[in-house]
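Notes to self, Probable cell division protein WhiA:
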Amino acid sequence: MSFTTTVKEEILSTSTVDGYELAAIIKMSGNLGLTSNGLTLSVSTENAKVARHIYEMLETLCHVKPDIRYHQKTNLKKNRVYHVFIEEQVDKILSQLQLADSFFGFSTGIDHQILVDDEAGRSYLRGAFLSAGTIREPDSGKYQLEIFSIYLDHAQDLANLMKKFLLDAKVIERKNGAVTYLQKADDIMDFLIVINAMAARETFEEIKLMKEARNDINRANNVETANITRTINASMKIINNISKIKDTIGLESLPIELQQIAHIRVTHPEYSLQEIADSLDFPLTKSGVNHRLRKINKIAEEL
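result:
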């Protein structure tokens, strides 16, 4: 199950019958039609549980008996699309939910009452996410929450609504609409709190912390590996130079303090500078060991 589905199922398990939530779903997933008998309304979703939730809210709040219809998509996913269909009292439903414009179409923005009332705003955001929200899988390490709107002004109103809850929401236009999105993990977790998806929020944070811990371990391992590689490369260079000196002028030609360091380096190529210093018969710092190794390299380079 995707993380988006997990969040939506938690919302459905905690949601009550709420007009603002229903208004968001109809605004974002509803289509109006016109027959000889008047307006019709079809609310579409690919989630059977969401379809049932829409049905129950319409039945309870608007006192109508919708039909649930479906069709199979013909694309590669072949998902089933559910349509909650109403062909009576549609004009009253639009007015009741404050969705109608002056021509009995959908108003494109969000009603002012929702923008100023925190509880109404929370409910509307729940409905908006149920209708058209997605969250990128948190273990991808690239955090993104998106809600798609057909209308740009609706997407901008959604962003303003999120900003009321101190979320850094942004809007981007697409060729067929606009997207309101969050890109920071903390904002996404706070959004889940706003829409009362607390279990999903905890799961998101756990995955995020585990991902960050793995990244920290990998970075530490990479640094350690790089350090080991540098040590080995430096060690092989000095060993090759020591062999060159041995084959030409002989190690005994070196000063005694260089001879012992050369012997330890050849015998223990894996030793760090500190380990070489600790193995000497006389006290020497890491800097002192490094200085003498450079002297050996210089002698070899001049041969």
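- The chain has twelve helices and eight strands.
- The mean pLDDT is 87.
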